[in-house]
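Protocol step 4 of 6: record predicted structures for both targets in the notebook before any analysis. Target 1:
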Amino acid sequence: MEQAMERLQKVMAACGVASRRECEKYITAGRVTVNGQVVTELGTRVGPRDTITVDGTPLRRKTARRTILLYKPRGVVTTMKDPQGRRTVADLVANLPDRLYPVGRLDYQTEGLLLMTNDGELAQHLTHPSHHVNKTYEVEVRGKVPEEKLDLLRLGVPLDDGLTAPAVVYVKDVDPVKHVTKFTITIHEGRNRQVRRMCDFIGFPVKHLKRIQVGNLTLEGMKKGQYRDLTPEELEELEKGMERHE
């Protein structure tokens, strides 16, 4: 699987040349070459094998940044190693040459969308609650949940670590035969086992939990245990969010 190409100014900034905006000035001034050719276009993308020079000096490349989207199955631990010997997300991507770390976590019994990266700046942005990165979960609980209970989730509920921010909740299905309710809940906080604790509070413990979306990223076309690199467009969208909070 090929690594995503990155914007030239982003690579330059990551290597410590200057800020991204200053690097853009270097490029438009004709001070940068890629594989021996002067580059002045700000939209230029480069890969890990491209040779870059600034004012004639070769750029010392750091480890190429990489971010993947993993469909974590149930029964997998969101850690790099597990003292109990359980299967980890690191085992699912063991064939990759890059050492990637999970962004946030999904608990052992929760499946769904998990990002893994070696980009610390991106990971910090995605996990910091002040940046309001939405995460949507598909929830299944036993019984029919009264609307007033769901309204509590929409308003915010008091947990032992404080009041939760208002959530967006949509009922998908109420099955009177199986005696279950399915709904989606969107939050931007990342507290430990937050959705499960919110459902416990309203008296409807989670039977099954799946994270189906983070920001604009979804599991479309993916099977459990599969992963893929983010596209340049997806990375660009995540980076726009980072730049809005600089």
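Target 2:
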Amino acid sequence: MTQQFYVSPEQLMKDRADFARKGIARGRSVTVVQYADGIAFVAENPSQALHKISEIYDRIGFAAVGRYNEFENLRIAGVRLADLRGYSYDRRDVTGRSLANAYAQTLGTIFSSGGEKPYEVELFVAELGADPEADQIYRLTYDGSVADVRGWAVMGGTTESVEQWFTDHYTAGLDLGAALRLAQSALGHDDAAPREVPATSLEVAVLDRTRSQLRKFKRLPDAVVAELLGE
């Protein structure tokens, strides 16, 4: 009878975490930045069809890095959950916190299960508040961990130098143009040598507090992004 190899739970979790981190690091970074009138999502993504940034509900946005098919499944599940809750109860019952909790449970269950590989994804869930102090931004990692962030956050790719750029240059109350220029410069510092990221390679969307519509999510076309960046 063949003897089964034993792997300690600690080593198994470490191997699964290393596997997920390596997959996530292969992509380019995504940033979220609070500005005076809302929340901006900025990703380096030259594709016009495969989006990293999407709308979940009226005041809730979603951004992801990693395997496209995996975070697309999570996005669709979030949209369905939000629609069902809003239809069954009230639109105000759909919150970023509840969606972040649902995503955390899903990712945590998949990560701790030995029957399937962990998801190679990280997520942002952001909810626009009535004022900047009421904005909520959650970062979720591959193992279901949740962090509540303020001001700005970065995930995916090589984040250390991008985070340092934000730490050195971010100030509260930026207008949208300044926030986008800051994000563009930060994304260009993900390599050893700084590089210029053109507007056409950026995917940008905002949760805009000044919109009169119930839905606050707005995707910015390349021409508008280039104008805001002064290109």
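Step 5 preliminary note on target 2. The radius of gyration is 18 Å. The beta strands are 30-35, 38-44, 53-57, 60-66, 121-127, 136-140, 146-149, 152-155, 202-208, 217-220.
Proceed to step 6 after PI sign-off.
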